[in-house]
Amino acid sequence: MEKLDFIYKRHSVRKFKDIDVPIEDIKEIIKAGTYAPSGKNLQNWHFVVVKNKEKIEEMARIVERKNMELANYAKDEDTKKSFTKYLKYHTVFRNAPVVILVYAGPYPSTGLELLKEKGASKEELDAVILPNPGIQNIAAAMENILLAASSMGYGTCWMTGPNYASREITDYIGFKKEGYFLAAMTPLGVPEEFELKSPPRKPLEEVMTIIE
């Protein structure tokens, strides 16, 4: 549908041209992220924009070192290979001119404290925590960022793979905000044309249930 082309033209981009992204465009994209809905309007997000190429490369090296460290804990070679084979996907941000780190802040799960006072079982508590509305807020902001970037001619790629190195990345960039943690990241840049494609989607009949 033509009206929804801004959605269908978004792709996960992993290769970028060596072209700078103006700071005003970055601000416009982040602004779109802040217009996402959030429970209780808490807006429990923070966006760290990294434009320095050396810092971006070092973040990739941090992921590489952490990947190697964790791989050494594998009890067998198959487990190790299964983990390390994804490293190239966890570091694709290294060739982008910009990386946006999306941090999540505290968010109270509605009814959780009352259930605790009631003496609810772990199963009941887990059922309330499981939907994780605080992360849903972050996901909404992230999707806005990706769609805004695409509509402005830029490429992005929603990434959570490098999160096993989130503490090391956060320490390296020096970001400090009480209660906030790295939830996701995306490279941002002008995409190589051959990257503008998407894998096939599951048919609606498989993922949709209609109750009348």
Task: Describe what you observe in this structure.
The structure is a single chain. With 212 residues, the chain is α+β, with helices and mostly antiparallel strands. It has one domain: NADH Oxidase. The chain contains 10 helices and 4 strands. It has helices at 5-8, 23-34, 53-71, 77-84, 87-90, 112-118, 122-129, 133-151, 166-173, 204-207, and strands spanning 45-50, 98-104, 155-156, 181-189. The protein has a 4-stranded antiparallel beta sheet with strand order 1-2-4-3, sandwiched between helices. Helix 2 runs antiparallel to helix 8 (133-151) and helix 3 (53-71) packs antiparallel against helix 9. The longest helix is centred in the N-terminal third of the chain and has 19 residues, at 53-71. The radius of gyration is 19 Å and the shape is globular. The chain starts with a helix and ends in a 5-residue tail after the last helix.
- Side by side, the strands of the main sheet go 1-2-4-3
Per CATH, the class reads Alpha Beta
Question: How far apart lie the N and C ends?
Answer: 26 Å
Biggest pleated sheet? 4 strands, antiparallel
Please tell me how large the radius of gyration is: 19 Å
CATH-derived topology: NADH Oxidase
Tell me what the CATH architecture is.
3-Layer(aba) Sandwich
* Mean pLDDT across all amino acids: 95
Number of domains: 1
**Bulk shape:** globular
Domain Nitroreductase: 7-189
Protein name: Nitroreductase
GO molecular function: oxidoreductase activity
